[in-house]
Amino acid sequence: MPELEPWFVAAIxxxxxxxxxxxxxxxxxxRLAGPHAPARAALGQQELLARRSLKALLAFDAxxxxxxxxxxxxxxxxxxxxxxxxxxxxxxxxxxxRGMLRKVRVLEAYRLRGLPEPSPAERTTGHEPLxxxxxxxxxxxxxxxxxxxxxxxxxxxxxALFELLExxxxxxxxxxxxxxxxxxxxxxxxxxxFFNASVFLDVAGIVERxxxxxxxxxxFWIGTVAATLASVAALxxxxxxxxxGVFAVLGALLAxxxxxxxxxxxxxxxxxxxxxxxxxxxxxxxxxxxxxxxxAAHLGGVAAGAVLGWILGMGGEARAALSQRxxx
Length: 328
Description:
2 domains
């Protein structure tokens, strides 16, 4: 192992210490620690659990994830292909912080007003018929993820299958058009598969409930084909992964939320538009910064999904649920 220069070791130690100081200051600013944090005896069960979960995540991020992310940024600046993994890993653990903090603040508001903690149903949409719809299992989403995982694992075991399904421009242009869709069935590694499957389960499940199973499946696969066509037009390198279809589903959810903004409860509309737009923007930006990321497929998927989501719109079950007067 090469010997590190003393100044380099000192810089790393100083940077790590700065991260820990910032972490402690953040805990105090968010009233999770320090003199302004509420006493444990004053907290309800849900707020106590939410605060503990957020503090644990922040500690994990400060001790490990933020240093890893900063190292990934350095590698990205140097155009090192190994930058992708640390930055994607960091995003996976940093993005939930915002939602967890919002949950703490909601529960804190109930406590400060002297109200009992809300039930899970009360913390969703405020519209009981829509709540029932959004709690239904998303079978088509689950089946799609199961197929993607099964084929991806099989392709790791049988490299010939991997080579047959991945996106290769020359083969597609010579007539192997199935690769436009099958690219979504193979992934580079476990982290790549886990990240795509996690986002898809979350987002596609909402689209399936709002638009219907058939429309969600159509958005995913048509979006995958459109994303791969964009990749073929812009990038000569082979690529794999379901991210083109995942971005299509994200684009569809954003379009549905905007098109039906008058029908959706204000809180649901704001949350869907804000969170979906943030995820799309952050990932598209990363696609231009990080090496070995198929940015063309991401853009093509978002564009195709947005068009399909706007055209297809909300399904009949969601319209029927929203037409019912909520029970207060």
